[in-house]
Design a protein that fits this description.
Layout lengths: L12 E3 L4 H8 L6 E5 L5 E6 H6 L18 E2 L5 H11 L3 E5 L5 E6 H11 L6 H4 L7 E2 L4 H11 L3 E6 L2 E7 H5 L3 H7 L23 H11 L3 E6 L2 E7 H5 L4
Helix pairs in contact: 3-4
Length: 249
């Protein structure tokens, strides 16, 4: 049986008094979507994520992480990876903190590491249409970075398909905005940078009638976290790793 300990990695942690800009520096790394917050003895207090890192766009800021901390998914080293996945799905995060009996953090487990193993061990039932998120917000290539930043902060969504003349041409996510200080650069230039300048152009999509197992295979094969769902040329939804996990028997 595979357990959390088998996938344990060292993960970044911060304290309540650390500045949000420090968190943002960590979150620019493609590997991490969450930073865990601990007290002085490394007891888990919660986490902040990429969206929180985007809320304060100044290069230098005295704002600390304290006001952004949310309850975190936490598991133990001996927990089966299926239990870890359930906790991650429950909190809609990309990782879980691994804690000991005193809730001292010992490391973390990433969904991206667990996902290929879990889907290889379990039958996935249903179609993409059965599990996809239909409440999808679509961006246009002419939308500005400022507009995308506002969408992320206000909607709670982490990525948006980008269309041009109603055709899918890319996808833009929180990490696209954080990478290379793009948000600060865009805001400094009247926020007129169009999203097509920073979006990911090589997008893998899927149809709603496809099996959810096919979506899982695509996510693993291309090492992406979500797929736009296209029906008759139109964007009708998004399916991500959390949606796939809902299809487990």
């Amino acid at each position: 049986m595979k357990v959390a300990q088998d996938f344990l990695i060292e993960i970044p942690v911060l304290r309540f008094s650390d500045q949000i800009t420090k968190a943002r520096q960590i979150l620019r790394d493609d590997r991490f979507r969450e930073v865990y917050i601990v007290d002085d003895v490394k007891k888990l207090l919660g986490y902040i994520d990429l969206t929180d890192g985007l809320r304060v766009t100044a290069t230098k800021s005295n704002v600390t992480v304290e006001g952004y901390v949310k309850d975190a998914p936490e598991v133990h080293a001996a927990d089966a990876i299926e239990q870890v996945a359930r906790e991650i799905k429950k909190f809609r995060t990309d990782s879980a903190a691994v804690v000991d009996s005193r809730r001292h953090i010992t490391g973390g487990v990433l969904l991206s590491d667990l996902f290929p193993v879990i889907i290889s061990r379990h039958e996935l039932l249903g179609s993409v249409a059965d599990h996809m998120s239909r409440n999808v917000v679509v961006a246009d290539t002419t939308d500005t970075v400022q507009h995308i930043l506002t969408l992320i902060v206000e909607s709670g969504f982490s990525a948006f398909p980008v269309q041009k003349k109603k055709k899918l041409v890319g996808i833009v996510s929180r990490i696209d905005l954080l990478r290379g200080g793009r948000v600060r650069a865009a805001l400094a230039h009247a926020a007129q940078t169009p999203v097509e300048k920073i979006m990911t152009k090589d997008v893998i999509s899927i149809g709603p009638e496809e099996k959810i197992s096919t979506a899982a295979d695509l996510l693993v094969r291309h090492d992406v976290s979500r797929l736009p769902v296209i029906d008759k040329g139109s964007i009708v939804g998004i399916v991500d790793r959390h949606d796939v996990l809902a299809g487990l028997r």
